[in-house]
C-alpha cells in the first residue's frame, strides 16, 4: 500500500513539475519579459539592469527554482492586462467557477442516475429510445451552442431567466456566493444546465450499461427468487452496486467540468476563472495564463490521485500480493 | 472490366448491405455529401459572395429571413450586421470548418500513427516516454490542450501575422490535442505485429527499422485508425467551432461556422436571431451526420458487433 501511494505521489509531483515547466517557459522563452515591462525608448543599460533585478542573468535552473518557489507561495506576478496581482484575481474568481461546476455535477447526478435507471429497466419503451437518441444528439452538440439556444429561448423569447453575470452576490469571508439571493440562483440556472449537459448524458449511459450488467448477475436472480419486491431488487441490490464506478467517473469528470466551464462562462459572461483565462489568451496576458495553467494542472493531478487511491481501496485486485503482507 | 467487377464486389459487400438496410445512415450520408458539395463549390453555388465588399449593401443589413414580413426574396435566410447573405456565409463558413476539421484530423493521424509505430516497434525507454506523455495528456480535456497550444502560439508569433497564420495554428492546436487515440491504438497493434513472421523475415533480409515500420507494419495496423479518423472529424469540427466562438480561432475575415455564431451572438438580444441560429443549426446537422456515419462505420467494420 505504502509503496503504491509513494509511487503515485512521485508521479503526481513529476506531472506538476512538467506543467510548471510549461508555464515557466511561457514566461521566459515565448515572450521577452524585459521588453514587456519597459517602455520602447529604454536604453540597453536599462535593459541590463532590469534583467539583473529580475534575476534573468542567472542560469536557467536557478530561475526555474525561483519560479517554483514563487508559485508555491501563490505568487505569479502581475496581470499585464488588469495590472493587479494574478493570485488575487484568481482567488476572487474561484468561487464563481466552483459554484457553477458543482451545480452542474449535482444536476448531472440527480438527472443522469434516474434517467439511466429508467432506460435500463424499461429498455423497450419509446421514452428510453427517445432519451438515448437525444443523448447522442447531445454529444454532437457543441456546448456553447446549447448555451446560446437556451439563452434564446429562456432569456430572449420567454424572458424568464437572466442570460449573463452572477446576479447579486453575498460576501462570506473570502468567498463570494450567489446562492443566497434570488437573482443569484436565477442567474445560476441556465449556465449550470448548459454545463451539465455532458455529465448528464455520460452518467445516464454509464448507469444504464452498469445496471444492465448487474441485472444479469446471479445475486439479482437469487434476490428475485427470494420474492423481494421489484423496487427492493432494483434499488436496494442493483443500483447500489452500480454506484461505485458512477461516483468515480463523476469525480474524474469534475476536472473536465471545471475546464469546460471556460466555454460556458464565455457564453454567459459568468465572472469565473475560465472567462479570465480566455481573456488572457486573447490579450496574450502571460502571467494569468501561466497561473491558470498551474492551478488547473493542480486540480487535475489531485483529482486523478484521489480517484486512483479510491480504486485501490475499492478493487482488491490492484493490491499487489507480497509474502507476509496484506490481510486479504 | 476490372473496374466493373470492383463495383459489383462493392455492391455485394456486407458494408453496402448494412448501408442499404438503414434509412438513417442513407440520410446521414446524403446530408454529409450535400454539406461537403455545398462547401467545396461555395464560390459557384452561393447566391452571393459575402467577401466581395463591392457587392455588399449596408442598407440590406439585418434583413429577416425571406418568409418573414420584412424579409427579401434574394436573401433566403436573411442578412447579418454587414448586409452579408446568411446562407452564403454559412456555405463559406462550412468550407472553412470542414477544411480545418479535415486537416487537423489528418495531422493528428499522421502524428499519432508515427509515434504509435515508433513506441510499439522500438519499445523500451522510447515507448515508456511516449506513452507517459500520452497518459498525461489524456487526463486533460482536449479543448484545454488546444487552447493552450493556441495561446502559446499567439504569444510567440508576431501580432501582424496572427490572421494569416491563424488557420495553421488552429490545425496544429486541434491535432496536438487529438493524436493520443491513434498512438494508443497503433502501439497496441504494432506490439502484436512486430513478432509475426513477415516482420522477422524483413529483419533477416536486413531492411532498416524505419523501412519495416512504415512499409511492412503500417499497412497492417491502419484499419482501426481509419475508423477512429471518421469519428474524429466531427469532434475536430466541434473543437474548431468552439475555439472560433471563443475568439481564438480563425479571423472574422475568413469566418468558419464558429466565427459566424460568435458574430451573431452579439445580436441575439436585439431580435436578430437568424444570424446565430442558422449557422448553429448548420453546424449541428453537419456534425450529427458525420458522427452517425462514423458510428455506423465502426459498427459495420467490427465483426464482433454483427
Structure description:
The complex is a heterodimer of chains A (328) and B (306). Chain A is mainly alpha-helical and 328 residues long. Chain A has a domain at 89-283: MetI-like (MetI-like fold). Chain A contains twelve helices and two strands; from the N terminus they run αααααααββααααα. In chain A, strand 1 (170-172) and strand 2 form a beta hairpin. In chain A, helix 5 runs antiparallel to helix 6 (126-140) and helix 6 packs across helix 8. The two termini of chain A are 12 Å apart. Residues 321-328 of chain A have low confidence and may be disordered. Chain B has a domain at 101-306: MetI-like (MetI-like fold, Orthogonal Bundle). Chain B has helices at 2-12, 14-21, 23-40, 42-45, 86-122, 124-138, 142-156, 162-176, 180-193, 197-204, 209-245, 257-265, 274-301. Helices cover 72% and strands 0% of the residues of chain B. The model of chain B has no long low-confidence stretch (mean pLDDT 81). In chain B, 42% of the residues are buried. Chain A binds chain B through residues 15, 18, 22, 26, 30-31, 136-137, 139-145, 148-149, 151-152, 156, 163, 255-256, 259-260, 262-263, 266-267, 277-278, 280-282, 284, 286, 289, 293, 296-297, 300, 304, and chain B through 136, 139-141, 143-144, 147-148, 150-152, 154-156, 234, 238, 241-242, 245-248, 258, 261, 265, 268-269, 271, 273, 276-277, 280, 283-284, 287-288, 291.
Amino acid at each position: 500500500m505504502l509503496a503504491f501511494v509513494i509511487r503515485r505521489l512521485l508521479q503526481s509531483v513529476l506531472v506538476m513539475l512538467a506543467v510548471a515547466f510549461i508555464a515557466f517557459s511561457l514566461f521566459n522563452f515565448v515572450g521577452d519579459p524585459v521588453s514587456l515591462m519597459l517602455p520602447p525608448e529604454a536604453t540597453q543599460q536599462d535593459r541590463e539592469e532590469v534583467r539583473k533585478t529580475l534575476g534573468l542573468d542567472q542560469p536557467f535552473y536557478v530561475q526555474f527554482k525561483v519560479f517554483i518557489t514563487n508559485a508555491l507561495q501563490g505568487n505569479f506576478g502581475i496581470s499585464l492586462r488588469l495590472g493587479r496581482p494574478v493570485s488575487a484575481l484568481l482567488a476572487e474568481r474561484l468561487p464563481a467557477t466552483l459554484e457553477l461546476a458543482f451545480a452542474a455535477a449535482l444536476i448531472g447526478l440527480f438527472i443522469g442516475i434516474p434517467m439511466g435507471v429508467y432506460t435500463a429497466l424499461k429498455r423497450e419503451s419509446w421514452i428510453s429510445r427517445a432519451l438515448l437518441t437525444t443523448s447522442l444528439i447531445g454529444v454532437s452538440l457543441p456546448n456553447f451552442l446549447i448555451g446560446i439556444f437556451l439563452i434564446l429561448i429562456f432569456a430572449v423569447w420567454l424572458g424568464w431567466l437572466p442570460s449573463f453575470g452572477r446576479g447579486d452576490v453575498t460576501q462570506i469571508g473570502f468567498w463570494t456566493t450567489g446562492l443566497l439571493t434570488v437573482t443569484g440562483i436565477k442567474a445560476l440556472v441556465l449556465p449550470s444546465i448548459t454545463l451539465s449537459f455532458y455529465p448528464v448524458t455520460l452518467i445516464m449511459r454509464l448507469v444504464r450499461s452498469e445496471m444492465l450488467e448487474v441485472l444479469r448477475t446471479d445475486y439479482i436472480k437469487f434476490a428475485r427468487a427470494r420474492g423481494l419486491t421489484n423496487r427492493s431488487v432494483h434499488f436496494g441490490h442493483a443500483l447500489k452496486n452500480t454506484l461505485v464506478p458512477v461516483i468515480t467517473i463523476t469525480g474524474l469528470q469534475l476536472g473536465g467540468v471545471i475546464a469546460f466551464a471556460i466555454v460556458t462562462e464565455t457564453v454567459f459572461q459568468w465572472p469565473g476563472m475560465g472567462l479570465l483565462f480566455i481573456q488572457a489568451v486573447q490579450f496574450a496576458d502571460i502571467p494569468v495564463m501561466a497561473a491558470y495553467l498551474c492551478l488547473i494542472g493542480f486540480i487535475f493531478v489531485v483529482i486523478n490521485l484521489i480517484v486512483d487511491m479510491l480504486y485501490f481501496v475499492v478493487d482488491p485486485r490492484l493490491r499487489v500480493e507480497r509474502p507476509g503482507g496484506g490481510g486479504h | 472490366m476490372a473496374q466493373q467487377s470492383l463495383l459489383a464486389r462493392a455492391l455485394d459487400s456486407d458494408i453496402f448491405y448494412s448501408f442499404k438496410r438503414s434509412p438513417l445512415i442513407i440520410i446521414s450520408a446524403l446530408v454529409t455529401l450535400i454539406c461537403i458539395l455545398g462547401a467545396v463549390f461555395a464560390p459557384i453555388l452561393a447566391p452571393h459572395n459575402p467577401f466581395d465588399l463591392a457587392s455588399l449593401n449596408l442598407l440590406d443589413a439585418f434583413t429577416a429571413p425571406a418568409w418573414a414580413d420584412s424579409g427579401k426574396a434574394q436573401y433566403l435566410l436573411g442578412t447579418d450586421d454587414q448586409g452579408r447573405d446568411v446562407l452564403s456565409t454559412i456555405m463559406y463558413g462550412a468550407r472553412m470548418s470542414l477544411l480545418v476539421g479535415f486537416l487537423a484530423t489528418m495531422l493528428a493521424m499522421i502524428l499519432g500513427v508515427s509515434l504509435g509505430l515508433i513506441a510499439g516497434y522500438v519499445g523500451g525507454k522510447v515507448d515508456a516516454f511516449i506513452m507517459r506523455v500520452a497518459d498525461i495528456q489524456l487526463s486533460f480535456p482536449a479543448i484545454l490542450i488546444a487552447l493552450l497550444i493556441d495561446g502559446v502560439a499567439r504569444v510567440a508569433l508576431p501580432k501582424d501575422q496572427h490572421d494569416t497564420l491563424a488557420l495553421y495554428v488552429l490545425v496544429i492546436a486541434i491535432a496536438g490535442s487529438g493524436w493520443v487515440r491513434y498512438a494508443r491504438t497503433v502501439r497496441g497493434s504494432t506490439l502484436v505485429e512486430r513478432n509475426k513472421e513477415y516482420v522477422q523475415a524483413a529483419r533477416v533480409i536486413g531492411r532498416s527499422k524505419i523501412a519495416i515500420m512504415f512499409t511492412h507494419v503500417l499497412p497492417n495496423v491502419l484499419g482501426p485508425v481509419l475508423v477512429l479518423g471518421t469519428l474524429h472529424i466531427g469532434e475536430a469540427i466541434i473543437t474548431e467551432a468552439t475555439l472560433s466562438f471563443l475568439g481564438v480561432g480563425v479571423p472574422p475575415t475568413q469566418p468558419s461556422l464558429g466565427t459566424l455564431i460568435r458574430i451573431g451572438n452579439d445580436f441575439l438580444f436585439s431580435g436578430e436571431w437568424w444570424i446565430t441560429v442558422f449557422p448553429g443549426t448548420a453546424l449541428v446537422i453537419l456534425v450529427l451526420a458525420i458522427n452517425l456515419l462514423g458510428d455506423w462505420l465502426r459498427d459495420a467494420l467490427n465483426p464482433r458487433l454483427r
